[in-house]
Specification:
The protein is an alpha/beta fold. The protein folds into 2 domains: 133 residues, Rossmann fold (3-Layer(aba) Sandwich), CATH 3.40.50.720; 142 residues, 2-Layer Sandwich (Dihydrodipicolinate Reductase, domain 2), CATH 3.30.360. Helix content is 30%, strand content 28%. The protein has 9 helices and 16 strands. The strands form 4 sheets. It has a 6-stranded parallel beta sheet, with helices on both faces. Strand 1 and strand 2 form a beta hairpin. It is globular and about 55 Å long. The model has no long low-confidence stretch (mean pLDDT 94).
Length: 326
């Protein structure tokens, strides 16, 4: 039975250890990152997909396909749902899955606003299911190492964090990111949310947040640049700057303390510098894989979630403070 993904309990009953995944949306992220990670995890099964265009499902032979989430949720064999649709659908789709008794791992950011995000947390608790968010950078060995070093006092008292992501306007393949009805905002919600969450991972729940959004170059319905200032307990300040208007790519991240600094630039790279030296800490080739493995371990083994929903919503709180300030 083990070879089929089952464990035999002392009672003599077989308990299935694999997790059957339903992936909602076959888009850029799910096709290139999430589905490959699910297929690479030995305890995950790509059981089904939901897509408005069923021809996209032909890429996954043997996998069930539905046009609507409601139809899919009638299948009792589904254990977990990966919500990989545009942001405006996160809340209604995640809540529907939770009410059907399914565990949910959701793409980032959690929702269009903090109120929706908080409702998702409440619904998960009410349904007794797990709710995680795919801020997969929490699984980076270098970010985890930075958290350890900060806790150990390697740079003295931390006082400042700087996270910068600069790039060009997203491709037409993800054109929905340019419409606030679908995406909420521009780089603030997209690439910025990952950096805000990384700061939250290191320093906990934010206490204050302000920011500026502007269209320095592109005439979009969403901003093409956003700068956020976040305050944490103990006087730590964080600055996150995310923009789609620079041909000079930047992916910078550093934590400054009273006695030194930890440099993770580029955040998506392997290198970590601190007063004690230089370390190479490679990320997984499939960056979503640690998040998938962790979620399966949470479902089947009771392991803690890498990014539980009640922490992920702190980023939605920050972005809402920025949106309200304009």
């Amino acid at each position: 039975m083990r070879g089929l993904g089952y464990r035999v309990e002392s009672t003599g009953y077989a308990v299935r250890m694999n997790v059957n995944w339903l992936v909602v949306g076959i888009g850029d992220i799910t096709r290139k990152a999430v589905i490959p990670a699910i297929k690479a995890d030995e305890r995950s099964v790509l059981y089904g997909v939901v897509t408005r265009d069923l021809t996209k499902a032909a890429e996954y032979p043997g996998v069930k396909a539905w046009e609507t989430l409601d139809e899919a949720l009638e299948d009792e064999a589904i254990d977990a749902v990966y919500v990989g649709s545009p942001v405006f659908l996160h809340a209604p789709q995640a809540i529907a899955a939770m009410r059907a008794g399914k565990h949910v791992l959701c793409e980032k950011p959690v929702a269009l606003n903090y109120s929706e995000a908080a409702q998702m947390v409440d619904e998960a608790a009410r349904a007794g299911v797990l709710f995680g968010v795919s801020y997969y950078r929490r699984g980076y060995p270098k970010l985890r190492r930075a958290k350890e070093l900060i806790a150990a006092g390697a740079i003295g008292k931390p006082v400042f964090v700087e996270a910068i992501y600069h790039g060009w306007l997203e491709s037409e393949e993800r054109a929905w990111l340019r419409d606030p009805k679908f995406a909420g905002g521009g780089p603030l919600y997209d690439v910025g949310s990952h950096r805000i969450d990384a700061c939250n991972y290191l320093f906990g729940k934010p206490e204050r947040a302000v920011g500026m959004r502007s269209n320095a170059l592109h005439a979009l319905k969403v901003e093409d640049s956003a700068t956020v200032l976040i305050g944490y307990a103990g006087g730590v300040h964080a600055v996150v700057d995310a923009r789609w208007n620079s041909h000079v790519a930047r992916d910078e991240f550093r934590v400054v303390g009273t006695d030194g600094e930890i440099v993770l630039t580029p955040l998506n790279g392997d290198l970590l510098l601190w007063p004690g030296g230089e370390e190479s800490l490679p990320t997984a080739e499939l960056r979503h894989l640690p998040a998938i493995e962790n979620f399966v371990a949470a479902v089947r083994d009771g392991e803690g979630l890498m990014c539980p929903g009640d922490e992920a919503v702190w980023t939605d709180w920050v972005t809402e403070q920025v949106m309200r300030g304009l």
